[in-house]
Amino acid sequence: MPEYPDLTVYLRALAPRVLEQPLEAIRVRGPALVRTAEPALAEAAGKRVLALRRLGKRLILVLEGDLFLVLHLMVAGRLHWRPRGAPVPGRVGLAAFDFPTGTLVLTEASPKKRAQLHLLRGAAALATLDRGGTEPLEATPEAFRAVVRRENHTLKRTLTDPRLFAAIGNAYSDEILHRARLSPVALSQKLGDTEVETLRRATVDVLTEWAERLTAEAGGAFPEKVTAFREAMAVHGRYRKPCPDCGAPVQRIAYADNETNYCPCVRRAEGCSPTARSPAFSSRTGPGRWRSSRRAAPPLGRRCQAAREARPRSSPTPKRGKSVHSPVGRSVPVGFPPPKGKGQGFAMGSVRQA
Fold it and tell me: Is residue 335 domain-resident?
């Protein structure tokens, strides 16, 4: 899902292309895209774009007549700038917005069509889409601390909750927590003032740096490679790859459709640094190489292993057709009648004597 850096690059690329330009037409291919009936999309035709905004993870085109065209890309929605009058692509195409300078095409490469388009009239209607999240780059240290401690959640959930912070998602929350050297499962209300301030600075630095990096990569062109997985990221999308700071293999916590990537040194509260390596790390094999060791297992794993070893083992039940040794010293085929005069019934893993 596009987050603050990606949305910022989109807004910067759209500004010179659509500001003060009339929206000539809206061509919708996916009917599930439009989430409002009044006002009708036809009312936006011919209206000039007065400003571009962002509301959480939504992009807003402010039009004449107190109209707001709000676009939520969700997970797989992407924007593309094409020559004027370009057709809406098949399969993945959802809509096209025609301007005198070109056509803005919306696509969604996912069978689950989740992207949303709203046309709203008035600021009051626009406010209904606001989830209430604080803009992390605009929050003061006191305001940031208050938001973090408002509810007692894991830091991963705190950063990605749109009711707490705006425009932070799965990808950049991993990068923020890695930069801050904080565990994704640490509870927000357990953090000290120093740790909260470290988290705030890491949030500002990561979001700002990536917004500038992506803008530089676009180089004035419209951004086409908007993705949550980038090679330059420290931990997100780098499961089992070495941490750039300590060499430990990046771990993950998978739940529902999301995945949290982190350095194991951070979860042990040792800090992520070249000197804070896992007990399973072998200096003889070099950084990034690991040897398996039972002693490196967590205490819970050792207890489970001891319990399994102490558990009495029952004799396996022989399969049908195999022979078992009867108490009287005769081998009897399993699942077949015993010899006449030596009992009744079938022998299924044991022999009953008459």
Answer: no
CB 251 within 8 A of CB 261: yes
Name every residue whose Cβ is closer than 8 Å to that of residue 218 and which is 6 or more positions away in sequence.
9, 13
Look at residue 328 in the predicted model and tell me its pLDDT. Answer: 47
Please check whether residue 321 lies inside any domain of the structure.
no
Which residue range forms the structural domain that includes residue 94? 4-127
Element (H, E) at 228: none
Is 158 in the same domain as 97?
no
The type of residue at 133 is G
Following CA atoms 165, 138, 143, 54 in sequence, which dihedral angle do they give, to the nearest 10 degrees? -30
d(CA 277, CA 211): 31
Choice among 87-96, 118-127, 191-200, 265-274 with the minimum mean pLDDT = 265-274
Structural tokens at position 89: 């692509």
Q: What is the DSSP letter of 223?
A: P
Cα 191 to Cα 119, 148, 299, distances in angstroms: 42, 9, 25
Handedness of CA 217, 221, 225, 229 (dihedral sign): positive
Rounded-to-integer distance, Cα 196 and Cα 80, Å: 38
Q: pLDDT confidence of 346, banded at 50, 70, 90?
A: very low
Asked if residue 123 and residue 8 are part of one domain, the reply reads yes
Q: Report the domain count for the chain.
A: 2
Pairwise CA distance, residues 229 & 220, whole Å = 22
* Residue 160 forms part of a structural domain: yes
pTM: 0.77
The helix/strand/coil state of 255 is: strand
Residue 345 has pLDDT above 50, yes or no: no
Contact at 8 Å (CB) between 175 and 233?
yes
Report yes or no on 217 lying in a domain: yes
User: Residue 284 is which amino acid?
Assistant: R
Tokens of 92: 């993945």
Q: How many helices (H) and strands (E) does the chain have?
A: 8, 12
Within 10 angstroms of residue 305's Cβ, the number of other Cβ atoms is 12
The C-alpha atoms of residue 27 and residue 46 are separated, in whole angstroms, by: 14
